[in-house]
Specification:
Structural class: alpha/beta
Shape: elongated
Number of helices: 9
Length: 377
């Protein structure tokens, strides 16, 4: 099989949900699944999206003058052309995803003290592209921009010294109704328990300007290599459904649509376990989120029996950050494999040259054994 990571990230490039590049990736994945002997299906869905019309920018005006690295927030409101200008004030912590993405927040204040917009600092470091979780229910349509951790440190230092910090903040985008994305499915039928399914999944879209080599061309690569291994070996007792989800970088739209569709048809109880591969192309270990405890113990036993196993750190705190989560909400046992750390997360620097092929290979081998054992033979 060809190098899927390279094809998605280099030949196609950035794959924001609903874009022509995402559609190209969908067709390529479907073609690959068919070539592996899987029964292939494309599930289209429409969603409400957001597209930038001006890049996010932040300019310091006082107590010094310079540009601050900035990233777009999907679903942010827009500033007037030329941006908004005001003095910043520390608000507190913005809980984009509790216990995971909890970032310092600053208001850009008008002369009358009202809020004009917000700067939110990535506690993990760089100014990345991100999404406003729980749109409307929590954050509304005010202008938001991501800044880096260095900006937060500078703001804190200046404010603690009693100095005023003024900025010009500029961002713009439009909400786009009726964007089209697709879930791509390849099915390997079970031999004796065909109505019981194991879902192996990975999202194939990327953030706005990122080639998405690690996030998540690497996960799609590993998923398809697992499919290749399973198709060439003894056939599983249970059906294994390989799914490349679209529009994960918004709010897991593809996996939510899939789970909701199954539930509406009364078929959700067919799904017995989920293995989700997200960012497995780099890192010094695999961070494996798995629940319930019985599933965790089974994975630990499998990994212990591998001679070339990658180092694993387990946790059971399932958060709404990837495509296993909609299944978890329905009480289905889930496991997410994620390589960590990765400094180029959600950035234009997430390129193919950063990928560690050995990490993909070892993750693929471990995950293949997990799928073989939980699918039965």
């Amino acid at each position: 099989m060809e190098n899927i990571t390279r094809h998605l990230s280099q030949t196609i490039g950035p794959r924001p949900a609903g874009s022509e590049n995402e559609h190209q990736a969908c067709q390529h994945i479907a073609k690959t699944m068919t070539s592996l002997g899987l029964t292939t299906e494309i599930q289209p869905f429409y969603f409400l999206g957001w597209e930038p019309t001006r890049p996010a920018k932040v300019q310091l005006l006082a107590s010094e003058t310079r540009e601050i690295p900035a990233g777009s927030f999907l679903f942010s409101g827009s500033t007037p052309e030329g941006g908004i200008e005001g003095q910043i004030a520390y608000v507190g912590t913005m809980y984009l995803c509790r216990d995971f993405f909890e970032w310092p927040k600053y208001a850009v204040k008008a002369s009358d003290g009202s809020d004009l917009g917000y700067l939110v600092a990535n506690a993990g470091g760089p100014a990345i592209t991100f999404v406003l979780y729980e749109l409307g229910r929590l954050f509304g349509r005010m202008p938001y921009v991501v800044v880096d951790l260095a900006a937060h440190d500078y703001f804190q230092e200046q404010l603690a010294a009693g100095r005023k910090v003024r900025v010009n903040m500029d961002t713009a985008g439009v909400v786009s109704d009726g964007l089209l994305s697709n879930n791509v499915m390849g099915v390997l039928p079970g031999t004796c328990l065909p109505d019981e399914e194991i879902v192996v999944c990975a999202h194939y879209d990327s953030t706005l300007t990122s080639p998405g080599a690690c996030d998540n061309a690497s996960g799609v690569d590993a998923m398809l290599r697992i499919a290749e291994n399973m198709a060439q070996g003894p056939k599983p007792a249970k059906t294994v459904r390989f799914i490349a989800f679209g529009a994960e970088e918004y709010l897991m739209f593809g996996s939510k649509f899939y789970v909701t569709s199954l539930k509406e048809k009364g078929l959700l109880d067919r799904v017995r376990n989920v293995v989700n591969l997200d960012m497995v192309g780099f890192g010094d270990h695999l961070a494996v989120t798995v629940t319930p405890e019985s599933y965790k113990r089974r994975l630990q036993t499998i990994f212990a029996g591998l001679t070339d196993a990658v180092r694993v750190e387990y946790n059971s705190a399932v958060l709404p950050v990837s495509d296993h989560y909609p299944f978890y909400e329905e009480g289905i046992p889930v496991a997410m494999f994620l390589g960590w750390p990765y400094d180029d997360y959600h950035q234009s620097s997430d390129t193919y040259d950063k990928i560690d092929p050995e990490m993909i290979r070892r993750t693929t081998e471990a995950a293949t054994e997990v799928v073989r054992q939980i699918a039965g033979r």
